[in-house]
Amino acid sequence: ANGAFAARSSIASVATRNCQERRGVTMGAQMSAEKADEGATVNSNGTIALDSPDKFELVHVRALHRFFVDGSYDFGMDKATFKEFITEALPNASEVATVLWDKFDTHRTKLVNALEVIAGLAIMCVGPILEKIQFIFDLHDFNGQGVLTYDEVVVAIFLSVSSTVLISGKGVLPEESMMERFADEAFVIADVDISAPLDKAGFTVWVIDRLRLEDAEDLTAKVGLREFLKRFEALQRPSMGTLSVVPGVSVSTEFEGSSAATPTGLA
């Protein structure tokens, strides 16, 4: 187990370096690509409209999260606050606020969990798999200590799965007991007692193990939700029964509006 952990840690380290080396030129490439895309919707100010969730890149989701943190927003938002939050964070995404609200206020409670929305966008958006994994970790690292408690890992997995179901409109919302099983597995693989915190490396290695990613190229591949699930549709683990790579969501399901999108830029 320790040998496997070390091997997957090495894969993650190589992939992280590759992502960091490319990040400096990513925005320039995105801007060039969006200008070349004839099918993109262009706002009056010349920016590319983020008019559906699948148009998001990870850079947009990061900007949304940063605005959420800097603005000291509450997790629960009513419709007016949510639309204001999305529009002020990403002016070229104003139209998607209503789409997201309808997807996440499924029980018509007139409140949405902003963290769940951001997690859903992180999973659906187009971006490198490794960066998505690490972003999900950072999203739940509320005190910035670089570690998650057992309960925080359960919440991170639960929100990741529930947000995938809600943003795609497919699958079944997860049960907390199932998420605890996955959290148990994460701590076992990282060889960490559940009374101690799990660091980002341990969390990342668990996801790599669960998806059975074997090389750095898999981790740096930029994919959206459908491509992510289809790419790993053969990775169901016998020991976990019929659970798919994303528990609660069938890997053979076609997701509406989740195809890989042309990269788009920030306003």
List the helices and strands and how they pair.
Layout lengths: L1 H35 L21 H13 L5 E2 L1 H11 L6 H9 L7 E2 H11 L2 E2 H12 L6 E2 L1 H19 L7 H14 L8 E2 H12 L4 H5 L1 E2 L1 H7 L36
Antiparallel strand pairs: 1-2, 3-6, 4-5
Features:
mainly alpha, 267 residues, single chain, two-stranded antiparallel ribbon
Structural category = mainly alpha
Give the percentage of residues in beta strands: under 5%
The portion of residues assigned to helices is 55-70%
Tally of helical segments: 11
Residue runs with pLDDT of under 50 for 5 or more positions: 3-40, 42-46, 232-246, 250-267
- Rg from alpha-carbon coordinates: 18 Å
Mean pLDDT: 75
Strand order of the largest sheet: 1-2
How many distinct beta strands?
6
Order of helices and strands: HHEHHEHEHEHHEHHEH
Overall shape: it is globular
- What is the CA-CA span between the terminal residues? 46 Å
Major β-sheet profile = 2 strands, antiparallel
Short overview:
The chain is mainly alpha-helical and 267 residues long.
